[in-house]
Specification:
The chain has about 160 residues and is of the alpha+beta class. It contains four helices and nine strands; from the N terminus they run E-E-H-E-H-E-H-E-H-E-E-E-E. It starts with 13 loop residues before the first strand and ends in a 20-residue tail after the last strand.
């Protein structure tokens, strides 16, 4: 199943954060746009690099009114340990059980490997997918493409 396209209605979900807090897309969208960042696994090299970049960009996303949510099939316990270890300032959602259900709904679940692939979706307050970025599992993404003009840090 291909990833959701721009203009699609984002599937609603209710997951738990790394601290067990509820994360429901409908509630998150009421606060502003939501950037869903699907990634394979906590504690992996490329994912760690991406989280470092997102941590560095977090203040720019916040200034733009965008809520960042990382999503993987890891348990909330693994996500909590990773978040504390890396100093991640945003929520990580555990798509643990049913295993990969949300990643499947967004078209970024690898059935053979049992993990989310690299898919990023900017969802507007009306629930419409505004931007999509997918890529190979072994390559990091450029998250600055999701920042409004003037919000991106200098290169």
């Amino acid at each position: 199943m291909p990833a959701l396209a721009v203009g699609s209605i984002a599937p609603e979900f209710a997951l738990r954060s790394q601290y067990g807090e509820p994360l429901a897309l409908a509630a998150l969208r009421r606060e502003g746009p939501v950037l869903l960042v699907f990634y394979p696994f906590a504690f992996s090299a490329v994912c760690g690099g991406e989280m470092h970049v997102l941590r560095e960009l977090h203040e720019h996303f916040t200034a733009a009114g965008i809520t960042v949510i990382g999503v993987s099939v890891d348990s909330k316990y693994a996500l909590q340990a990773w978040s504390l270890d890396m100093g991640i300032p945003f929520s990580l959602a555990a798509d643990f059980w049913p295993h990969g259900e949300v990643a499947r709904a967004y078209g970024v679940f690898d059935e053979e490997r049992g993990m989310a692939t690299r898919g990023t979706f900017l969802i507007g307050t009306d629930g419409t997918v505004e931007q999509v970025l997918t890529g190979p599992v072994a390559e990091a993404r450029d998250f600055t493409v999701f920042l409004p003009a003037g919000q991106a840090p200098p290169s």
